[in-house]
């Protein structure tokens, strides 16, 4: 399947969005009592109060005057829907509830990613899979007594199967809708952000109801200190760790016995970044496509500078939940099967065999990743191949072509080790491909049909967001130069330079002249190797445009 994605609703969200994300919760976290206390329980040094106040001011300035009103309106819609249908919702009603929970406003722009991927798409499919159970739990949380609702939250935290897929985000969202002044939304990103701002511990789901009470008390204190409205809390907390980057991020919960992470869900930063970088509907569709057991491969292709690797890396982190489960490799013309799967490597003996020369079988990058995934079936592992089409793909992949399609069903005997080898079902293969180097149509069809393909194009909307805070003249110059080059090359041309060429720190006429001279012109000189007159004509127009603004 091939899909084109607009990065104006993708990379632009990285700067435009400020929302918390919670895509599942740990289901087997260790108890807070006993054993060694993790860094999550020890807390972190808090920033100065003045620094926090300045950060809050920046958040309010980003969202503008509609920060609170733009959240109050959809919250009122959610309450009205719950009052009318709690306990007897259809899946469409549940989707409408989720949409209301996710909708908010930044300036004049309507957005729908306040808590996504929660309350959306794949998450919603899981939580409503047993619609009768969903309705019973929602009714208990919305219409039951406060004590009963809190008791259910406690039970869900301790035994997630009580409300499969809901985590703590849905119970605390409904509590928040019941009384925003007393019940904040408790998710990984808000818990982490609170710890950054007040220096306390990161309160994990394993803390259950006592942890939520502590979280709510600390949020109330922070609100009182900085005059925060209830509707501002999640947006302020969710970005705190990224803003105060000098604070070390807390490690994910680990099993005391094995040291392995206890959840396959994305960590807070990975989930936050991919949700802010990719439109929720695109993210949800990609995840759904990659859930096909026979096609867990996806390639992002497009011209240079469109953000293919940026998006693929964040999708990999999101799927794997932790960077330790992501293996990245860059293909090049000399990259071979021996590097990727397995091959013979020379080895010089030591000790009694010192000076003797022999060849030994060494596993390649992909085989090592498969072995790691096979030994860790509870988590998704990802291999990311950057610039995939720079290598001889048929030679590098070898028998992987059939193994990728028949995961865990078919094995082959490897040529060097003679070991039986298969690709585990919990391994995802992502790749990027530069269409300026080689057209997708030239890639071996047997390989291409095994990948979902996502086209990433130059996107003016990304630049519009990037320069939104600059003076009108500066904004116009960047966008005019972008339009000038895109029109000359052809907006649909495989080699049209991507928007990141224009996202330079200095967007003055002098700064853009340097971008043209040292980046765009050399690139277009190669692109128009057989048509130099087109570069000459464009250069005259570029110099005229920049000269008028210098």
UniProtKB/TrEMBL annotation:
Region Disordered, annotated ranges: 1-48, 243-269
Gene3D superfamilies hit by this protein: P-loop containing nucleotide triphosphate hydrolases (3.40.50.300)
Listed InterPro entries: AAA+_ATPase, ATPase_dyneun-rel_AAA, Luciferase-like_sf, Methyl-DNA_Rec/Restrict_Enz, P-loop_NTPase
Molecular-function GO terms, alphabetical: ATP binding; ATP hydrolysis activity; oxidoreductase activity, acting on paired donors, with incorporation or reduction of molecular oxygen
UniProt-listed CDD domains: AAA
Pfam families with a match to the protein in the record: AAA_5
Domain AAA+ ATPase residues, every copy: 294-461
Low complexity composition-biased segments: 254-268
Matches recorded under SUPFAM superfamilies: Bacterial luciferase-like (SSF51679), P-loop containing nucleoside triphosphate hydrolases (SSF52540)
PANTHER family: 5-METHYLCYTOSINE-SPECIFIC RESTRICTION ENZYME B, TYPE IV METHYL-DIRECTED RESTRICTION ENZYME ECOKMCRB SUBUNIT
Protein name as it appears in the record: AAA family ATPase
């Amino acid at each position: 399947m091939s899909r084109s994605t607009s990065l104006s609703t993708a990379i632009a969200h990285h700067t435009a969005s400020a929302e918390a994300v919670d895509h599942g919760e740990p289901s087997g976290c260790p108890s807070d009592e006993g054993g060694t206390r993790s860094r999550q329980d020890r807390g972190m040094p808090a920033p100065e109060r003045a620094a926090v106040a300045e950060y809050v001011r920046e958040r309010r300035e980003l969202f503008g005057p509609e920060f609170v009103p733009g959240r109050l309106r959809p919250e009122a819609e959610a309450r009205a829907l719950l009052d009318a249908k709690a306990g007897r919702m259809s899946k469409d009603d549940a989707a409408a509830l989720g949409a209301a929970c996710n909708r908010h406003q930044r300036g004049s722009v309507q957005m729908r990613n306040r808590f996504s991927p929660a309350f959306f798409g794949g998450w919603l499919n899981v939580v409503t899979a047993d619609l009768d159970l969903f309705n019973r739990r929602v009714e208990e949380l919305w219409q039951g007594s406060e004590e009963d609702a809190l008791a259910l939250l406690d039970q869900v935290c301790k035994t997630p199967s009580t409300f499969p897929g809901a985590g703590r985000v849905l119970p605390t969202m409904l509590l928040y809708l019941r009384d925003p002044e007393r019940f904040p939304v408790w998710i990984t990103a808000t818990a982490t952000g609170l710890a950054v701002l007040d220096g306390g511990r990161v309160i994990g789901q394993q803390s259950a109801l006592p942890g939520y009470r502590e979280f709510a008390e600390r949020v109330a204190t922070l609100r009182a200190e900085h005059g925060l409205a209830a509707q501002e809390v999640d947006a302020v907390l969710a970005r705190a760790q990224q803003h105060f980057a000098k604070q070390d991020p807390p490690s994910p919960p680990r099993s005391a016995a094995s040291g392995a992470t206890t959840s396959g869900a994305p960590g807070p930063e990975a989930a936050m970044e991919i949700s802010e970088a990719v439109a929720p509907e695109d993210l949800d569709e990609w995840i759904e496509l990659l859930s096909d057991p026979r096609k867990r491969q996806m390639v992002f292709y497009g011209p240079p500078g469109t953000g293919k690797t940026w998006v693929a890396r964040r999708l990999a982190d999101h799927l794997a939940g932790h960077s330790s489960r992501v293996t990245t490799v860059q293909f090049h013309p000399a990259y071979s099967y021996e590097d990727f799967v397995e091959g013979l490597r020379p080895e010089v003996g030591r000790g009694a065999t010192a000076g003797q020369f022999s060849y030994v079988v060494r596993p390649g990058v992909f085989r090592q990743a498969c072995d790691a995934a096979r030994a860790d079936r509870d988590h998704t592992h990802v291999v990311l191949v950057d610039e995939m089409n720079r290598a001889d793909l048929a030679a590098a992949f070898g028998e992987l072509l059939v193994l990728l399609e028949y995961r865990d069903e078919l094995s082959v005997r490897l040529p060097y080790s003679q070991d039986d080898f298969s690709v585990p079902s919990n391994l995802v293969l992502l790749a990027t491909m530069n269409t300026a180097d080689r057209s997708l149509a030239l890639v071996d069809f047997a390989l291409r049909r095994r990948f979902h393909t996502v086209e990433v194009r130059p996107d003016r909307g990304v630049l519009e967001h990037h320069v939104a805070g600059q003076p009108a003249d500066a904004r116009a110059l960047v966008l005019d130069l972008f339009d000038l080059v895109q029109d000359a090359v052809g907006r649909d041309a495989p080699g049209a330079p991507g928007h990141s060429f224009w996202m330079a720190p200095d967007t003055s006429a002098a700064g853009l002249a340097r971008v043209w001279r040292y980046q765009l012109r050399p690139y277009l000189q190669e692109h128009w190797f057989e048509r130099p007159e087109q570069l000459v004509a464009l250069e005259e127009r570029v110099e005229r445009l920049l000269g008028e603004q210098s």
